[in-house]
Amino acid sequence: MTIASNVKQCVSSLKGVEAGLSSLALRTQDDESKRILHETMLVVNEVRKDVQKRVGELEREEPQYKGF
Amino acid sequence: MPDWIEILLRSFFFLIVLFLITKVLGKKQLSQLSFFEYVTGITIGNVGAELATKVEGNIIHGVLSILVFAIAPFIAGLISLKSKTFRDLIEGKASVFIKDGKVMEDNLKKEKYTIDELLGLLRKKDVFDISEVEFALLEANGDFSVMLKKQNQPVTPKDLNLPVAAVKEPQTIIMDGLILDEPLSTIGLNRNWLHTELDKLGVILENVFLGQANSNGELTVDLFDDKLKVPSPQEKPLMLATLKKCQADLELFALGTESKEAKEMFSKNSEKLQKAIDNVAHILRN
Fold first, then answer.
1. Are B149 and B132 in contact (CB under 8 A)?
2. What residues of chain A lie within 8 A of the CB of B166, using their CB?
3. Which of A9, A28, A47 is opposite residue B216, by nearest beta carbon?
4. Side-chain half-sphere of B106: how many Cα atoms within 13 Å?
5. Which residues of A touch B257 (CB under 8 A)?
6. d(CA B48, CA B263)
7. Which GO terms describe its cellular component (chain B) (predicted)?
């Protein structure tokens, strides 16, 4: 396993969490919890985007691991 | 008409009369008897029983008497809603038995309670040591209420400064294998969601004896077949674990990379994620 594939794995985990948080926020009845879940979802989204960018750079450095 | 038939008819008639009267007087008559309700309750019952068995008694007279005894507490209830003085007179006042941790002997004597009875009342409230009590009083309806000293009260999340997720009341949405649509829509969910959740658990609707959904949209089921094991909802703890794993991964990448830019980006994001985890952990923890 190279770093590139590890980072890719992390990106997909973050994606999964993002979707989970989003669906939980929609289903939760309490407004305060809803807000916190939504905010967390946004943070995870930002982090995911940053890491995604890094994946692009890594793919340029290690072209043999390109693809997703 | 033979006597026994008349007694049958009378009993039936008074059963209905008494039922209607208690229905009108409401739950208060059942749950907390004030002096007044205590007295009228006994009398109404007695008059009813007397007239049901005594063939020579006049039914109209009996019903009139019952009506008087039923209307009196009804009116008293209406007035006591308005007037505090009247309320104190009719329903009585609570008497303080323990104040600032000290037993009020005079009040005990006034209510004819012995020290043994006081200790018994305390024990019923799970208090065996009188030094634990800050305040205790005998309510007007005969109930005994105890306030413990702060250090003996159970710890609450507030005492521990613990953030907790708010929960609303859960709804029962499956009974005896049938879906209840009204509570389902109360909690903002629909049959589609329910079928998906049941599929996730791998159970069929007909096998579900009881199903409850909480305010986080998690489904808990009890099956007719008790040998089958149902997984408890794992979604939220799993999400928290994944979040933590991602955060740890980011830290690891930050350590592993040689590019200074990437190192900065990873450590910044891992901190960001850590903060988010701290914020959301109390909701995702079960």
1. yes
2. 30, 32-33
3. A28
4. 1
5. 3
6. 89
7. plasma membrane
With CB atoms and an 8 Å threshold, state whether B239 touches A37: no
User: According to CATH, what is the number of the domain B171-232?
Assistant: 3.30.240.20
Q: Give B103 to chain A, closest Cα distance, Å.
A: 45
For chain B, give every domain's residue range.
3-89, 95-152, 171-232, 236-284
Distance CA B248, CA B257 (A): 14
pLDDT band, residue B229 (cuts 50/70/90): confident
- The answer to whether B95-152 and B171-232 have equal CATH topology is yes
DSSP state of A2: -
In the predicted structure, residue B32 carries a pLDDT above the cut 80? no
Q: Which CATH architecture has domain B95-152?
A: 2-Layer Sandwich (3.30)
Query: ipTM of this model?
Result: 0.88
Of B112, B150, B156, the closest CA to residue B133 belongs to: B150
What confidence category does residue A55 fall into, taking pLDDT thresholds of 50, 70 and 90? confident
- Taking the CA of residue A31 and the nearest CA in chain B, the distance in Å comes to 9
- Residue A8 contacts residue B262 (beta carbons within 8 Å): no
DSSP B56: T
Cα–Cα distance, B237 to B285 (Å, whole number): 6
Q: A52 vs chain B: nearest CA distance in angstroms?
A: 11
Domain of residue A47: give its range: 3-65
CA distance B276 to A43: 7
